[in-house]
Design a protein that fits this description.
Layout lengths: L5 H6 L7 E4 L3 E5 L7 E7 L15 H16 L7 E4 L15 E5 L9
Antiparallel strand pairs: 1-2, 2-3, 3-5, 4-5
The chain binds guanosine-5'-monophosphate (5GP) and zinc ion.
Length: about 120
């Protein structure tokens, strides 16, 4: 737990969020500024600053995040129409919170290429 990290605090429930799913190692919650009808963030308990900071032994965490996102996509019934999973890495990609998080976006048509 990193003291001044927003998402460590959300994991610890020191800051409230609209939780969608939780297990021992991951939590999923609604993004506070949704850009799609489904916009859920999936984070690990472990503080890892970004996807680029993952060490080889931490890579299995990514599978856990994807498994959780896929499960939520099923629950929201957006899987057939399609959804997008996004890791923003670094400033030019729009990363604003430096605790690893996977965006689950769906419920509308999503443009490609992204902005
Ligand atoms: P990034 O831009 O780093 O890829 O994504 C960070 C996301 O966190 C943004 O979509 C932003 O809306 C969301 N966010 C920032 N602060 C909070 C918060 O306090 N609560 C929740 N639920 N989401 C947040
Ligand atoms: Zn953190």
């Amino acid at each position: 737990m990193v003291a001044d990290c927003l998402f460590c605090k959300i994991f610890a429930r020191e800051i409230p969020s609209r939780e969608v799913f939780r297990d021992d190692d991951t939590v999923a919650f609604d993004d506070i500024r949704p850009v799609a009808p489904t916009h859920v963030l999936v984070i690990p308990k472990e503080h890892i600053a970004s996807v680029h900071d993952l060490t080889p032994d931490q890579l299995p965490i990514v599978s856990r995040l994807i498994a959780t996102a896929n499960r939520i996509a099923d629950e929201r019934k957006i899987a057939r129409d399609g959804y997008r999973l996004v890791f923003n890495n670094g400033p030019q990609a729009g990363q604003t919170v430096y605790h690893l998080h996977l965006h689950l976006l769906g419920g509308r048509g999503l443009g490609w290429p992204p902005g």
